[in-house]
Design goal:
By secondary structure, the protein is of the alpha/beta class. It has helices at about 5-15, 25-35, 40-55, 70-75, 90-95, 125-135, 150-160, 185-195; strands at about 55, 65, 80-85, 105, 140, 165-170, 195-200. Helices cover about 40% and strands about 15% of the residues. The termini are far apart.
Length: about 200
């Protein structure tokens, strides 16, 4: 793709770094910015700079937050004895959109994937074990994607927490095997949360 402007070229190359954005889409976005008011473009850019510089991770659940403790963890109406373990922020959003879960979350920050060089120590698993060891958690719902990596992570967590007197369940397989949670429709995901099953049953 030939450019008549180095500035346009630089903008297109930056947009093209985003997932799902090809060079043609990047070009459309860059040209659209040229049509916007300068103050709007400045606010657009500053929003992303602020996102990168000012975002926090909740000290309780590792969810993305504007504060040290996220709104979900600080909400007294949530059921603090039930903990839903998810891969990342996208899964929190997906489950919250179902309006079926009233407990708290624990965001792992990924799943175990040896092929990608991600092991248990790269994830927020130790802090999960620490929470359970305190004795306030009654149930752990493992709501990870139904992929080989997700199942591997489920099994690892199950082994780490097996010694504690807690109920461990996994979301019902209304989510097709191999599916990512963020792409599941809200009704199916909601039913999977409500109809969760004991984790031991999923090992058969």
């Amino acid at each position: 793709m030939n450019f008549s402007s180095k500035l346009i070229q630089d903008a297109v190359e930056q947009f093209a770094k985003l997932p799902g954005i090809g060079r043609k889409s990047a070009m459309r976005l860059a040209l659209h910015l040229l049509k916007m008011d300068k103050d709007e473009v400045r606010s657009f850019g500053e929003a992303f700079i602020d996102l990168r510089d000012k975002i926090n991770y909740c000290q309780e659940c590792h969810n993305i937050s504007d504060m040290d403790i996220c709104e979900l963890c600080s909400n007294p109406s949530r059921e603090f004895s039930t903990l839903c373990v998810v891969e990342d922020i996208r899964d929190v959003i997906a489950i919250e959109n179902t309006h079926q879960f009233k407990g708290k979350y624990h965001v792992l920050g990924g799943i175990i994937s040896p092929m990608d060089g991600v092991g248990p120590t790269d994830l927020n698993i130790e802090s999960l074990v620490t929470k359970v060891a305190k004795g306030n958690i009654k149930e752990i719902i493992m709501a990870l994607s139904t992929t080989m990596e997700g199942d591997t992570t489920n099994f690892y967590i199950f082994k780490r927490l097996k010694e504690y007197d807690i109920k461990m369940s996994v979301i019902a397989r209304g989510i097709s095997v191999g599916d990512e949670l963020e792409y599941a429709d809200e009704v199916t995901l909601g039913r999977s949360i409500v109809n969760r099953t004991p984790y031991e049953n999923s090992l058969a």
